Amino acid sequence: MDVGTISVILLAGMLLLLAIGMPLGFASGFLAVVVMVLKFGPELLFSNFGTGPLNILAQRIYGITTDYVLISVPLFILMATLLERSGIARDMYSSLNMWLSRTRGGIAVVTAIMAIVMAAMSGIIGGEVVLLGLIALPQMLRL
Prior knowledge:
The protein is an all-alpha fold. Helices cover 79% and strands 0% of the residues.
């Protein structure tokens, strides 16, 4: 089975499964197993446990979910909550507003720069999006 056939099966299967209302994660997992069975044969499902491509898939999923970098996401949420509840975020954005009041959209520019710096420091974009969403959005609406 060549790459073109696998691509057509994946695309058509994904469109069909999403059209009938299956969640994206389940549709992707189901199609991955179907393509592996088509590629490596049906003995893939009934072989000894711990051997073959299906075991590699399970190991990869486990490795992704136990990544230590993901521990920083709840810490970003905690930091954003502390900054918002203590009033530090309001004071920070008020001072930045005084500093950049002549620049059109100055607070939005500062928020974008903060997002770039924090994403570069942590390597987790999702955590800093939550952080800036909790901190910056109320302050930008206030100003």
